[in-house]
Amino acid sequence: MEPITLTTERLLLRPFGPQDAEASYLACQDPDIQRWTVIPSPYSRADAELWTEKLAPAGWQEDTMYNFAVVRREDGPLVGALGVNRCTLPGTFEVGFWTAREHRGAGYTTEAVLAAARWAFTALSADRLEWRAEIGNTPSRAVALRAGFRMEGEQRSALFNKGIRRDTWTGALLPADLGLPGTYPHRSSPGVRGAL
Questions:
Q1: Of 18, 12, 14, 23, nearest to 54 (Cα)?
Q2: How large is the average pLDDT for residues 5-33?
Q3: Any residues with CB less than 8 A from the CB of 154 and at least 6 apart, and which?
Q4: How high is the pLDDT of residue 196?
Q5: How far apart are CA 121 and CA 117, in angstroms?
Q6: pTM of the entire structure?
Q7: Would you tell me which of 69, 100, 137, 145 could form a disulfide with 133, CB atoms 3.0–4.6 Å apart?
Q8: How far is residue 190's CA from residue 182's CA, in Å, rounded to a whole number?
């Protein structure tokens, strides 16, 4: 897929490039980003260069991972990162994100997640966008809830991070949650929270 840029009221979500290596390196020195995400720890400049110059662009080329540098529209500093990744089940994608420490609390990541979700539901024909975070990562959970994800429970040993299998919270967002049509009909079960 050709890389694209998404625009919101305050943000641009654009593909990562070599110009983002230094800002990514600096943001990822944050112990919270290293603790709660699967990035290498410690995180080196070489890791940032590999990510911005090779891995992130390869995801677009291979049509498997769509990673965005999240920047403010007016002055362009890196606010965070957001990725939409294909899952094995057709029409299912997973979203992941981190926010630079100095930009937390402004609602940027929720805004970016909603823009990426609308794009995934329309451009990628997604019928389900999943979110997963290690149990205890309450800031990530708060973003997912503000973006409209419905929490679906906990999964044991569902995340492998830094040599340890970890339990996760899981949630999902469907096109109908944003007032959008799905690619395929969805038959919900009466006992599922939020079912019609």
A1: 18
A2: 98
A3: 135, 167, 168, 169, 170
A4: 41
A5: 6
A6: 0.95
A7: 137
A8: 19
